[in-house]
Amino acid sequence: MNESFDELLPATRRALHHRIAVAQADGRAPSLVGAVIREGRTVWTGSRGRTGEREPDGDTQYRIGSITKTFTAVLVLRLRDEGLLDLSDPLERHLPGTAVDGVTIAQLLAHTSGIAAESPGPWWERTPGALRPELADVLGEAPLLHPPGLLHHYSNPGYTLLGALVERLRGRPWDAVLRQEVLEPLGMERTSVDAEAPHADGWAVHPWADVLLPEPLEDLGLMGPAGTLWSTSDDLGRWAHFLAEGDDRVLCAASVAGMRTPAAPPADGSWDAGYGLGLQLMRKDGRTLAGHTGSLPGFLAAAWLSPEDGLAAVVLANTTSGVPVGALAADLVSLTAAHEPLIPPAWTPSAGPAPDPELLALTGSWYWGPTPFVLRLDRGSGLELAALTGTSRASRFRPSADGTWTGLDGYYRGEVLRVVRGDDGEVSHLDLGSFVFTRRPYDAAAPVPGGVDPDGWR
């Protein structure tokens, strides 16, 4: 029997409301909005506090700070997918004269460029962008603090460079490209460079008294691609769903999945967090979340998505500090998943033509030495290889025109899988990055590296 679960249960809604109520009260935020998105649809929005004379809702704009970087990253990956650049290209190839020789586009996306975290001079988030009219003003005289590619070091000026790269290759301002290529196709009408009513004002809250101080609102100029955008929880819900599923009008599913693939561990060595291509990554309650946090004076923001749960969550607040919005948004995902776990779709046989019999014959058990693996067909006529014991070295493979297969993820990402046949035409073994997989453990009839003891098992 089919059932509809379009709305959250009352107990789930109360748990979510309680969580944001505690966070707003403990963090003393003038206002806070939270939202949960399930399979692309906002199923819960809750708020606390006020913005002026009204209660905030899913259409109230807040400044989202570094969540802006996820938009800039998508614009760069669109250029990559169009063949206008390669992520391994040095930035200087496309944007000469930046004084960051050797830094690649991928390193800028993943914050492994070695460029300083902030722009020199007065605090750029609270001063006019006119103080930094040229890229040289953003970077300073010695922008590289670390050798490119050595470690993860978060860099706001790095994303200024990516914004300038977009402008150079498109021949238009970054915000105009963003509006035409991303926001309009996705229907994100309430995401903008400048505040549009209804919006929250930014405040600092005194640490030892219940009083407020208005924060300045500045045009960030060249630093805009690193953190200038305003948005709503409704719009960010659409954005989170896009980052989970992709949209061929903007960026395909494979490319957004690449954004969620770890490209750099954090600087502190903690493997509970990391960074992909424009996306922060975090392990929380046994799941991997992708998204980003953001802050500017007067505002805090976070958006996390969990593709395996079909869930995303957004938190927006108009305070400079005090609310751990990243942890709060992650908790909204965990609470919803715990109360209402994803119900998988009913299994159905694969649609379309029957698989190639020779391909079907490859499925089943294979052995790397004595370690059992299983090879199976996925619904897209690809292959999936996984160990039967433990969780290591699982990968998916796509077919190549020359009859080989290329790893898409996991340990064998980018590695080539070859089906090797004997003189009789029968499959002898699989060769995967020099590893030999055989139908029986250490098959003496296969070319196992180092050979197999002639006396066999004993």
TrEMBL record:
InterPro entries documented for this protein: AmpC-like (IPR050491), Beta-lactam-related (IPR001466), Beta-lactam/transpept-like (IPR012338), DUF7586 (IPR056008)
Please give the start and end residues of each transmembrane region.
none
Provide this UniProt record's keywords sorted from A to Z.
Hydrolase
Q: Where is the Beta-lactamase-related domain?
A: 21-337
Q: Name one GO molecular function term.
A: hydrolase activity
Signal peptide annotation: none
**Cross-referenced Pfam families:** Beta-lactamase, DUF7586
Domain (DUF7586): give its ranges.
356-439
Q: Does the keyword Mitochondrion apply?
A: no
Q: What is this protein called?
A: Serine hydrolase
